[in-house]
Amino acid sequence: MTASGFVSNRALPLAATDNFNLQIQFSDGSAGTVSYAADAPTGPGKERFETSAPGIYAVIDDFRGATIWRGRNKDSIGARKQDKGFGAQFDSIRRVIAGEAEAPSPDGYLLSTMTTLAAARSLETGVRELVFEGPTTLS
Predict the structure, then answer these.
(1) Does residue 47 belong to any structural domain of this protein?
(2) pLDDT at 20 over 70
(3) Which residues, in sequence order, are CB contacts of 33 under 8 Å at separation 6+?
(4) Is the pLDDT assigned to residue 80 strictly greater than 60?
(5) How many domains are contained in the chain?
């Protein structure tokens, strides 16, 4: 993974910026890009996620909609109110506490945390970072 960005406030280190791009290369050869631009005008949105693999490409724009291309077929989801998933997250926690659902596997949390830390290191140093080397599942 590599990260690059720019600071809005020169008093902060580059690793604390909220304007960045991440380039992620997955072990299966697929790739992903995360762009976050806190200083962007409100029109284009601040968050954009792109991912691709052979025969498929997907984009999520500002948590409002998504477009997925499979070959020549294009599916669009969205043009709705922005949903970053906070409500669903809190409902999931409530259901686990109430005994109505099982807690999610920590594997996803571990990998996302490792990815975040690698992104911060890459942003600060400009060096490509390895997130995880090992089996595709942690358990």
Answers:
(1) yes
(2) yes
(3) 21, 22, 23, 24, 48, 49, 50, 51
(4) yes
(5) 1
